[in-house]
Amino acid sequence: MTATSPRLAFLASPAEDAQRLRKELADHYGDHAPADADVLVALGGDGFMLQTLHRHGTHGKPVFGLKLGTVGFLMNHQRDGATVADLGLVERIHAAEPAVLRPLEMVAHTESGATMGSLAYNEVSLLRQTRQAAHLRIELNGQTRLDELICDGVLVATAAGSTAYNFSAHGPILPLGTNVIALTPIAAFRPRRWRGAVLRADTEICFRVLDPYKRPVSATADSHEVRDVVEVRIRESQDRTVTLLFDPEHNLEERMLAEQFISG
């Protein structure tokens, strides 16, 4: 990124307001292909930010998000009533604080013998596919830790994703930089009082589906779903990172701290 004018690539969700802002910003600042840009600017909500990371994360470019969706935990606020010139986008990018995220790697094996791999920047979740509860065995680094979990599902969340589905399932919010991940059950029936675990980020987690034919289970890495799984292995990626840029007054660490003190 140059000291004065970084090359920007503008990416927008299909929503009309996002597409309109993308055109205005591109006309004002110029627009580059993601591979040639210094910074990617994502316009939308958290769902679109995750799409951007999955599609363009291999370029290794930092991403500055502007919220135009309903959920924008990973985005910066678009200032109400501001024109494109008033947004001060380049100045905000130069002043932004980086948050380096490391995704989870999921490898899922299906009952048909297929093997599917995917990355997850928020979480990997396993969910029952029918009215029957899932029966799962949990192994950590090759050692069985829970012989049988009967539940609607279970998930593994990164620190950045710990405020999303994980938090809704009563999992812990994890501070950035602590190198831990959350293992959280969803509507656990047995053991009824098991509330999950906080694990070192380099832990390899293996879920084995104990009755995949009568009680089928799907696995989803962010939005990539694999159905009829019999085994799912998850570990933090060793060679992939992405960098998100945040306005200093609303950096990701502050947002995660503030989320823990919201009442009502």
UniProtKB/TrEMBL annotation:
It comes from the Bacteria. NAD(+) binds at D46, G47, N122, E123, D152, A160, T163, A164, Y165, N166, F167, S168, A187. Its EC number is 2.7.1.23. GO terms for biological process: NAD+ metabolic process; NADP+ biosynthetic process. Keywords: ATP-binding, Cytoplasm, Kinase, NAD, NADP, Nucleotide-binding, Transferase. It catalyses: NAD(+) + ATP = ADP + NADP(+) + H(+). One of its GO terms (cellular component) is cytoplasm. It is found in: Cytoplasm. It holds the Pfam family NAD_kinase. The active site is at D46 (proton acceptor). GO terms for molecular function: ATP binding; metal ion binding; NAD binding; NAD+ kinase activity. PANTHER family: NAD KINASE. Involved in the regulation of the intracellular balance of NAD and NADP, and is a key enzyme in the biosynthesis of NADP. Catalyzes specifically the phosphorylation on 2'-hydroxyl of the adenosine moiety of NAD to yield NADP. Belongs to the NAD kinase family. This is NAD kinase. It comes from Cognatilysobacter bugurensis. The gene is nadK.
